[in-house]
Amino acid sequence: MDSLIEHIESLIGQGRYLEAHNETNEQLLINPQDIRLKQFYALSMAKSGGLEEAESYLQPVWEQDKNDPETAGILGGIYKGIFKKTQNTKFAFLSRDVYLENFQLTGDYYTGINAATMSILIGDTGKGKKIAAQVLEKLSAIDANLWTQATKAEAYLLLKERDEAVAHYTKTREMVGNNWGQVTSIYQQLWLINQYRHVPSDILNIFKPPAIAAFAGHMIDHPNRDGVRFPEAIAPQIAEAIAKKIKELNIKIGFCSLACGADILFVEEMLKQGNEVNISLPFNKDDFIKTSVTFPDPSWLERFEAILENQSIKFITTEPYLDDNVLFALQGKVIFGASILRSSTFKENPYLLTVRSESDMQRAVGGTRALFELWPYKESSVNINTDSFHSNYTEENLPGLVQEPQKPQTDKLDRKILCLLYADIVGYQDIDESKMPYFVHNVWGEIANNYDELLLPPKFINVWGGRIFSVFNSSRSAIEFALYLEKKVKGFDWKSEGLQKEINLKLSLHIGPAYSGINPLTEQNNIYGSHMNRALEILNVTIPGTIYASEQFASVLALESPDYQYDHVGIVQLNENLGNQEIYKISQKEK
Using the 8-state DSSP alphabet, how is residue 215 labeled? Predict the structure, then answer.
């Protein structure tokens, strides 16, 4: 059992929350009374976006044994999470009370400091200060480590002992180093406290979030290029300019591709400075090397492979290039959006750093200038102008990259970047046969008859049983339809119609290249492609009552619209052909 617990704990530590949830669920069938499994089940459920469901499950477990700090810590954290999400102070009080009761029973410093902080947040300042003092007394007999150091700092902050708080937060920051997950955790706690009680700026600055940047830049000029935009001769100067901007802007986390020229230079300089890089490729590696790495000089391939010896990459799609430049455009959107999602955890906007000729006005599909125009925070964009490093500029298209995307070798199917949605009525299979006509005509009818509520209806929709598949041209249209379906399904009085009362809905969203065309058998338009399988696989792991989206979709939506709440669910293992997939839960922002 110890090895099993370590395995599940490791999955949670790696962000594989759904895998941990599924494994814990299976093990609970064998060991239904194991308290550690119950804790992991609730924790993984909460991390997967099911805060309310996790609370319902863990609350009775807590009632049975209030002496367990682990159960109290998880349940108190769940209540705190619901409070942060809804701003309903009822959950702040529930969080404080769970933490406090356990601290009074056990003296555990973790539940103690959380009880103190939540007391301050609900306005019970006297109680908060009293508990903070008790926590410091408890810690005086415990050997120092990162979390005891952070706890002392927070206790001194609550007691308004500024100098001691600064000293302990400074020591904590030294111990954290470049572990940005821990930096995020402590900064978010400080940010929360600051919403209800002033936190001195010098303390906030100790955990000032690292600067995050999306990066885009020109490749080395193609040998067939008549003009000059980024000749290989200026690469060393561009590298120096990139290194200087990274230091000036204090960029610690970067999102980029890995093409020859600016991308590889950016990654190399980031790694030299000990920073984090998140590398994405638009399609399979072999095709990317052919289109974007090897053409100037073989040395760029050596640099590409050297980087990948110690760095992992994400694939926006895993299929071949197929001469389809829209994949470069999708890649750029995902890189930009991923930087925005990461920055949102710090309540900051990211930078956009580009290496771009300011004289070249070409808007290539997926090119640097076209991508730059998508960036929503122009005030935080910085460019290194390649024109400044050479003369003899001649405006010229770059073969293979700035021409309009070529079509696959067929005149029957059209390949486009599409947003894909699957929805599943959970409980449909249990609907009585006699009630099926009601379901088909009333439920589907209500959805179909109110399309005027939508920004744009689906461009394609198919229904079988209790499942919907629909396709959209934009991420905004897709999420609006998902929320529309949620609203309609929740609005039905299922019980009064004699239907199963636990009928629910789960939805998945993904974006990728897909074909559309007439099916010769049905003589109707249809959608084809492997990304439909990815969207369906995501649906299969979605928790009922939620909307799960691939990182690709969530990133594009974050770039195109700020109106939604994004909660990182973790990494999911799909089938063996599709590999790992990062997932986000998307919901409407609480007003």
Answer: E
Number of Cβ atoms within 10 Å of the Cβ of 518: 12
State how far the Cα of 286 lies from the Cα of 586, in Å rounded to an integer: 33
Q: Counting beta carbons within 10 angstroms of the beta carbon of residue 428, is it exposed (0 to 12), middle (13 to 18) or buried (19 or more)?
A: middle
CA distances from 497 to 293, 427, 431, 434, 489 (A): 62, 15, 11, 11, 14
Q: Take residue 279 and report the two structure tokens written for it.
A: 């590398």
175: its two tokens: 């111990």
CB 155, CB 169: distance < 8 Å: no
Q: What is the pLDDT of residue 78?
A: 96
Q: Which DSSP category does 155 fall into?
A: H
Which long-range contacts (C-beta less than 8 Å, at least 24 apart) are formed by 14-19? 14/571, 15/568, 15/570, 15/571, 16/570, 16/571, 16/572, 16/573, 17/44, 17/47, 17/48, 17/569, 17/570, 18/44, 18/48, 18/541, 18/569, 18/570, 18/572, 18/583, 19/570, 19/571, 19/572, 19/573
Contact between residue 338 and residue 255 where contact means Cβ atoms under 8 Å apart: yes
Task: Kindly give, in sequence order, each residue whose CB lies less than 8 Å from that of residue 460, ignoring residues fewer than 6 positions away.
Answer: 470, 471, 516, 525, 526, 527
Helix, strand, or coil (residue 353): strand
What's the rounded Cα separation, in Å, for the pair 331 and 281?
A: 7
**Cα–Cα distance measured from residue 377 to residue 161, given in angstroms and rounded to the nearest whole number:** 38
Predicted confidence (pLDDT) per residue in 474-525, tens digit: 999 999 999 999 988 887 776 666 666 567 899 999 999 998 877 777 777 7
DSSP category for residue 32: T
581 CB-contact burial (10 Å; exposed 0-12 / middle 13-18 / buried 19+): buried
CA Rg, the chain, in Å? Answer: 26
Q: For the purposes of burial, counting CB atoms within 10 Å of the CB of 436, is it exposed (0-12), middle (13-18) or buried (19 or more)? A: exposed
Q: Rounded to an integer, what distance in angstroms lies between the CA atom of residue 550 and that of residue 508?
A: 8
CA dihedral angle for residue 93, residue 95, residue 97, residue 98, rounded to 10 degrees: 160
Dist CA 384 CA 173 (whole Å)? 32
Q: Does domain 211-389 have CATH number 1.10.287.3510?
A: no
Q: What are phi and psi of 519, to 5 degrees?
A: -80, 120
414-588 has the same fold as 211-389: no
Beta strand segments in 64-145, E = none
pLDDT reading at 398 higher than 60? no
Would the CA dihedral through 528, 530, 535, 536 be positive or negative?
A: positive
CATH topology of domain 414-588: Alpha-Beta Plaits (3.30.70)
**CA 254 → CA 104, 210, 263, 273, 370, distances in Å?**
45, 10, 11, 12, 20
- Amino acid letter, 318: T
* Residue 126 neighbours by CB distance under 10 Å: 10
Alpha carbons 212 and 252: distance in angstroms, whole number? 6
Q: How is domain 2-206 classified at the architecture level of CATH?
A: Alpha Horseshoe (1.25)
Residue 554 CB-density burial (10 A; 0-12 exposed, 13-18 middle, 19+ buried): buried
Give this prediction's pTM.
0.85
Domain ranges of the chain: 2-206, 211-389, 414-588
* pLDDT tens string 275-297: 999 999 999 999 999 999 998 78
